[in-house]
Amino acid sequence: LFFTLQDILSYHKRSHQRLSPGLYLGYLKLCSSVDQIKVLVTQKLPNILCHVKIRENNNISKEEWEWIQKLSGSESMESVDHTSDCPMQLFFYELQMAVKALLKQINTPLHQARNFRLYTQEVLEMGHNVSFLLLLPASDDVCTAPGQNNPYTPHSGFLNLPLQMFELGIVACFT
């Protein structure tokens, strides 16, 4: 019981930590069972999706958003013009570095992430000057069903947190 109480207090403390202001790239991975859906989070910050910081500025310019939209409509990264202007080159580089760091964090080789995609419906504004872009696995792999082999096995230090607990943690942190 003592260890459980320590674990509960530790979880409570970690789940109320906030991210520093900035733009982040988060990874959305779900696992389902008969009676619940779980979200992949880090043990250090269980109230936030697995993430890496892209930059200090949490805003995305109109030009950057249009570039992201163009990127999502193309078949591959190679077909998008990355040399058009300097600000877009910087944003492309920052996003590219964030994707590589996030893939390393979740233990997914770059070649296995070929079908990953960027969520382009909106930028998630969490509050307190924190914004998220979401990296999604291939549509068939967003949610792993019971008994289904998960091709992406993250390093230790991750939890599959029930969705309800995740929602409570994120609401408590960003409101």
From TrEMBL:
GO CC term (a single one): spindle
Coiled coil regions, renumbered to chain: none
InterPro entries membership: ANKFN1
Origin species: Neovison vison (American mink)
Gene: ANKF1
GO annotation terms (biological process): establishment of mitotic spindle orientation; regulation of establishment of bipolar cell polarity
Name this protein carries in UniProt: Ankyrin repeat and fibronectin type-III domain-containing protein 1
